[in-house]
Amino acid sequence: MFRAPNPPYEPPQTRDWSISNPAAVFLFGGAPSLAGVTVSEQTVLGIPAVKAAVSLIAGSIASLPLQTITEQADGTNKRVPSMLDDPGKVVGLTCYEWKEIVVAHLLIHGNAFLIHVRGGAGQLVGLQPIHPAAVGVEIAKDGSKRYRVSMRDGTTRDYTDANLTHIPWMPLDGIRGWSPLQLARSMFGTSIAAERSAARLFGNGALMSAVVTPEDTLTAEEAAEIKASLEKTAAGEANAGAIAVINRKFKMTPWSLSNADAQWLEARAFQIEEIARWFGVPPHLLAQTEKQTSWGTGVAEQNLGLARYNLEPWTTRIQERLSWLLGPNQKAEFFYSAFVEPDPETEIQLLIAQVEAGLITPNEARKVRNLPPIEGGDVLRTPQPPQGNTP
């Protein structure tokens, strides 16, 4: 049993809205970009490159185990069970889904809000993600934050840092994180405009193969009859190589993309690079391989670079906020070992070297390789000094 979060209303003494608060913008359906199109969460995720980048980062982080670590008296760290082992279970979310939602909110809106869910004894049993557009951040006279949440039933509830955790991205004003959706509005708007232009090009039939112009005047019935005859005798797979005979004088002009159209296609490809640059994702991971390649670089090295320069800043931001919810000498930590593990041959050589150096026992090495323990394998080996040449 858990108690639904419903704290009593406590109006703040004064209210100062953050200058980066996008709530008013979303109230009117998004903001127009320089390209003249409205940019919102739905339209941005409709861009294939944005959807791929968000899915890649959010999915990669969601696949990492989230552990609770406690520091022992001897200075070593030990994993202990905590609410963070499955923080979304009490609200119907799997651990993967919970982490994916939190990261997606940060990537798109620059903020993640988590309502504390408590059990019957008042203990923290879970964290419920709230859509950032439904949360307004206010500052009281004493400097503390107040969060006004719009609920689905049309009511609003007020929360404080005691019952809501706020994870911001680059909060330059110290109140609310900047929204990537707003900062990159013009770039996203250009991409949306390009997608709509492509849809109109296909929808309006501008991609025809040829234009046929008669040298004499035709009635509507004659034109329709000749068009049907041409399609029947000259178009399609079955008529490849056939000879079409039409009892009229026609001039046929092949239709092809102009140089301007080709540059338009190049512009769309450039937008993929811009989106990859914005999210910090290598373009080849977004299927843009014309100028980039992954050949010559191992998968482990690519994953290590992605983890170090892209994923780790996001996970550090999350785990430091979540650590505030834990007990003394405890901290939250994303476990990267499975994500950046080397290939099997390299891993075996590393394990052998660690066993020979006395860093781990043979059974600890066998456990990494999912092998059963052996008798006497729980004893560390004594490192042997290097054998030199004797005179």
Automatic annotation (TrEMBL):
What stretches pass through the bilayer? Answer: none
> Could you tell me which residues belong to the region Disordered?
369-391
Q: What InterPro entries does this protein's entry cite?
A: Phage/GTA_portal (IPR006944), Portal_HK97 (IPR006427)
Top-rank taxon of the source lineage equals: Bacteria
Q: Which Pfam families match?
A: Phage_portal (PF04860)
NCBIfam families (alphabetical): portal_HK97 (TIGR01537)
Record's protein name: Phage portal protein
Species of origin:
Mycobacterium aquaticum
Taxonomic lineage of this organism? Bacteria, Bacillati, Actinomycetota, Actinomycetes, Mycobacteriales
